[in-house]
Amino acid sequence: MNDAAANTPAPEASPRREPDGEGWSKKKWLAAVTIIFAAHVAIIFALGGKKRVVPLAGTNVPSLKLADNSSKMLALEDPTLFAQPHLEGFAGPALRNQPLGQFRRQDWTEEPRWLSLSAENLDTTFQQFMQTNFFAVHRLDFKPQPKLSVPPPVEPVFAQNSTLQIMSGLARRRLLDKISLPSLQYNDVIAPSVVQALVDTAGNVVSAILLPSENSAEAAGHAAIGDTNALQIALKLRFAPSSQQTLGRLIFNWRTVPLSATNAPAASP
Q1: Nearest-angstrom CA–CA distance, 113 and 255
Q2: HEC readout, 167-226
Q3: Backbone phi and psi for residue 125, each to the nearest 5 degrees, phi listed first
Q4: Radius of gyration for the alpha carbons in the chain, expressed in angstroms and rounded
Q5: Domain membership flag for residue 252
Q6: Is the pTM of the predicted complex or chain greater than 0.85?
Q7: What is the span of the domain harbouring residue 191?
Q8: d(C-alpha 87, C-alpha 190), whole Å
Q9: What's the number of CA atoms in the CB half-sphere (13 Å) around residue 111?
Q10: What's the whole-number average pLDDT of the chain?
Q11: Which of 245, 178, 176 is nearest to 206 (CA)?
């Protein structure tokens, strides 16, 4: 029994099969890529040319050029291009081809030709004028009679009465009341009293101010009696009504009489 078992041949082993889906190994893939790369390099070196690269020449490239006086674009800025005949205008060729004229000097002077005049007829025109015109006869009087004139009246050195002068804007307004200024009792001459007065629309004096003297000599001649009377009289004046207030000056020229003389008391206006 043991001999039969020993003589029985063992079954043959089946060949080993690789599992499906594994493909090439990494070594095979790396070898294939290396072979393909080396083939491409060999083909490039074998078929590649060794000619030198020559750059292509550029055509129709814009260029920059400085314009001179003969540029047509600059000629368009000429204001006389269309207003006057111009070589760059539509008649330019005609002007270029026009022949220049020859200048010829001409002397137009000639000898003077005097008009003939007879000496016998020199006064004919004057005689005709005298015969056709008549002039008034004027007798010359070399000794005229003297014209008599009456001498002007001699005015007294000193005024006989005190006077009032109305100046500036008040001179255009009429004074309603008739005023008679008194003579002041004073032993010397009194300088004029100047009062600045403001008159309202109704004609009443609303303000009266005594103005100072313009020089020292006139200031020395002032007296209190004259200035006091000037302010009192100025406030009592009445003028014609007006549409607006008026400012002006009142100048009182005083006549003085000595204190020793017997005079009537000063009358108020």
Answers
A1: 90
A2: EEHHHHCCECCCCCCCCEECCCCCCCEEEEEEECCCCEEEEEEECCCCCHHHHHCCCHHH
A3: -65, -40
A4: 69
A5: yes
A6: no
A7: 163-257
A8: 97
A9: 1
A10: 77
A11: 245
pLDDT digits 0-9 by tens, 217-257: 666 767 788 888 888 888 888 888 888 888 888 888 888 88
- The torsion region of residue 252 among left (phi > 0), alpha (psi -120 to 50) and beta comes to beta
Number of domains in the chain: 1
Residue 85 inside a domain? The answer is no
Name residue, tokens 């007829």.
121
Beta bridge partners of 205: 199
Helical (H) or strand (E) element with 39: helix 26-47
Residue 219 falls inside a structural domain: yes
Strand pairing class (163-168; 184-185): unpaired
C-alpha span between 8 and 3 (Å, rounded)? 9
- pLDDT at site 154: 63
In a domain, 251, yes or no: yes
Tokens of 196: 């600045």
